[in-house]
Amino acid sequence: MIKKKAKLIYKHNSFDVVEKGDYVLCAVSGKQILLSDLNYWNVELQEAYFSPKEAKVKYEKARNKS
């Protein structure tokens, strides 16, 4: 089975699929996230995170830049 990267638009409680695929990439770690497992993303930055750990890393980096 060939996996294809999806393109999404992230909303506050959901996401829209712009291009069908099986996964997206974590913006912090680069890990593949199956769409069925996607639970963490940032609406403003329009990026996905593998887990709360990666989301926290991104949040802390952004906070330290301010």
Protein topology:
Elements (H helix, E strand, L loop, with lengths): L6 E4 L4 E5 L3 E3 L6 E3 L5 E3 L4 E3 L2 H14 L1
Antiparallel strand pairs: 1-2, 3-4, 5-6
Quick summary:
By secondary structure, this protein is of the alpha+beta class. The protein is 21% helix and 32% strand. The protein has one domain (7-65).
Structure write-up:
The protein is α+β, with helices and mostly antiparallel strands. It has one helix and six strands; from the N terminus they run ββββββα. The protein has one domain. Helix content is 21%, strand content 32%. Strands 1-2 form a two-stranded antiparallel sheet. A two-stranded antiparallel sheet has the order 3-4. Strands 5-6 form a two-stranded antiparallel ribbon. A hairpin with a 6-residue loop joins β3 and β4 (32-34). The radius of gyration is 12 Å and the shape is globular. It starts with 6 loop residues before the first strand and ends with a helix. The mean pLDDT is 94.
